[in-house]
Amino acid sequence: MEEETLMDVGVGINKETEVAPALISVHPLEKSVAVAIGSQLRVYDLQGDCCINLVDDSGGNQHTGSIRAICYGAKGSLFASAGDDKLVKIWSTDSWHCIRTVCSEKRVTAVAISHDDLFVTFADKFGVVWVVGLDGICNETNNKPTSLFGHYCSIITSLEFSPDGRFIISADRDFKIRVTVFPEKPLSGAHEIQSFCLGHTEFVSCVAVVASPELPEGFLLSGSGDCTVRLWDITSGALLDTCDVSAQAGVREPSEKEDAFSSAVTDICAYPNGSIVAVAVQGLQGVLLLSCDLFAKTLSVIKVVSVGETLIPTSLGLNSSAEHLWMITGASNLPALDDPSFARVRVVSGIHKESKGSTWSDPIVLEDSKIPGGEKLLEKLQGSVSIAKEEQTLAAVAEAVNMAMRNLLIKREYSSEKRELRKKSRNDKKLKQ
Amino acid sequence: MKGNPKSNNTTGLPRKRFYRARAHSNPLSDSHFPVPTAPSEVDYASHYPHYYSSEGTCNENGESTIDSKGAIHKPELKKIQFADVGCGFGGLLISLSTLFPDTLMIGMEIRDKVTEYVKERILALRETNPGQYQNVSVVRTNSMKYIPNFFEKGQLLKMFFLFPDPHFKEKNHRRRVISTHLLDEYAYTLQVGGIIYTITDVEELGEWMKDCLARHPLFEAVPEKELDVDPVVKLLSSATEEGQKVARNGGQTFLAVYRRIALSEIENGV
């Protein structure tokens, strides 16, 4: 909670210097790739092989706070960015003009674009999901978001549409995943809950949908602070399979598991045919690949792909052909570093099942010069090509991101003395005097 | 029950003065009490030991039947069908327990001490009235956050919201237990035809609750005629501690009773 963070005397977090993890998102047809770091949005045009200068003539403000969520629409013609500055900016990916700037009342934690490109939904830190219609001329009345539904006062960590577009799926830090029917007229609210996917025992950090041509209605994948990735039936909310990833993340002692954060799942990406799931885990260097059998409804670990350095990805990106798995590690507002923001982009290719049998191909971690867009892309997205590769920097990033996530999502327990102390510093009480 | 210093010596019932609690509790704060991860994890055996053994089977008609093909049919386990949200000292539950002896019902209360009181009260009643009050229990939880953890879709027949905290200040309206967003969740747990009962002695809150329910597409008002013959409606003000207090002081109450309807019904009806 925002208020909670502000008055948090024990941990001492300053809103301005909160570390925000770097994010990456890939155009569904790999026409472009976008990176958000701090308040900066960096986009590289892979089709034209050039850097993109974002043009903002929507009349709204620029991003000034950390961007917390980015996404492309399913067709790739729209892109949305939102975050701590309470702005939701919607971009046309043809020209990279900002076509809309929507003001939120609270800080934004997740954003999703409906499959028909007609609505943008976003969630705030108070657990309310809002919707804005995109058709028609932008004026003051239709640029005002209306509330769609709410998780009662819980930070919403992830927002996705089901593959068929019928449902909107939201996950929160109270272990809940809610599947809501996305109505024909969303501006009057989404009141019909299809299901709740319950089973996680810690905050849910990310959700992703997975579908194949044979199973177009698809399934839901979720990652959580309880070190598991779970597979769900979207319509019934039934838990189909659970995959514990703590062993891969190097949690050997059962006692270590008590500290849930050593291996919280941070991001999930499903390959379009639904057979492979890429998972980023706190404390895991590289990316974990899971095999997903949609007919048997099972998840199993394939292997960990190490990217050759002590790189723990903060975000993953994949396009619909799934040729390249993009990953980024980085953060803004890093303490004790020369440059407060740091980003490192890597690309892995060649992840697929061998045509015969059940063996898996050896994924190739692409050299910087071999990745799509090459060093020009890296210069744009990372800020510089020759990034300091020292393990120290990467370790500092991992540590800072881990701490930021912990502060954001874990529920703090206070001793009774500390609670009294916090009550004394309540700002609403002070006002009364 | 004997020897419990907090209980009345003759009736065995707990005495309220040992369970005093603050009247308000902040529903927005993080909860640190245990919550079942899913409805299937609700510990029915501890709530309804008469109906459930610790192995999770039904005691009443507990024998499994074997059909002609030799397949074993376990009797359908009873599920909770009434929920009293913010049950307070449990007056309504105790009255409902004997009125609907075959229905499992639960009170949900956020205040720890009050929950303890209701727990002791139920245990004492079970002891002094053998065979009765086995269908009623209480749990300490924040129902504004965890309703879906306790009940499956369409599980409940009746939900009660009696004399909820009015949260007068506008900035605290989001703490009210009836709101458009929360009604979505209540509609999810109620089966079509299920009824939501609300009552308050605060006119402003009464208007608010009625307004939220009237505007919600999944609820419709229960007609006056039906209210007159519904035995539960009379209990709303007479059985609850808050209701009795209002009656003592000659206060007014504001009732809103709505039925859960299917969304398609409205679409077809138009």
Automatic annotation (TrEMBL), chain A:
GO terms for biological process: tRNA (guanine-N7)-methylation. InterPro entries: Trm82, WD40/YVTN_repeat-like_dom_sf, WD40_repeat_CS, WD40_repeat_dom_sf, WD40_rpt. One of its GO terms (cellular component) is cytosol. Pathway: tRNA modification; N(7)-methylguanine-tRNA biosynthesis. Pfam families: WD40. It is found in: Nucleus. It comes from the Eukaryota. Belongs to the WD repeat TRM82 family. Forms a heterodimer with the catalytic subunit. Required for the formation of N(7)-methylguanine at position 46 (m7G46) in tRNA. In the complex, it is required to stabilize and induce conformational changes of the catalytic subunit. This is tRNA (guanine-N(7)-)-methyltransferase non-catalytic subunit. It comes from Papaver atlanticum.
TrEMBL record, chain B:
Pfam families: Methyltransf_4. Coiled coil: none annotated. The active site is at D165. Pathway: tRNA modification; N(7)-methylguanine-tRNA biosynthesis. S-adenosyl-L-methionine binds at G86, E109, I110, N142, S143, L162, T240, E241, E242. One of its GO terms (cellular component) is nucleus. It comes from the Eukaryota. Keywords: Methyltransferase, Nucleus, RNA-binding, S-adenosyl-L-methionine, Transferase, tRNA processing, tRNA-binding. InterPro entries: SAM-dependent_MTases_sf, Trm8_euk, tRNA_(Gua-N-7)_MeTrfase_Trmb. GO terms for molecular function: tRNA (guanine(46)-N7)-methyltransferase activity; tRNA binding. It catalyses: guanosine(46) in tRNA + S-adenosyl-L-methionine = N(7)-methylguanosine(46) in tRNA + S-adenosyl-L-homocysteine. Its EC number is 2.1.1.33. It is found in: Nucleus. Belongs to the class I-like SAM-binding methyltransferase superfamily. TrmB family. Catalyzes the formation of N(7)-methylguanine at position 46 (m7G46) in tRNA. This is tRNA (guanine-N(7)-)-methyltransferase. The lineage of its organism: Eukaryota, Viridiplantae, Streptophyta, Embryophyta, Tracheophyta.
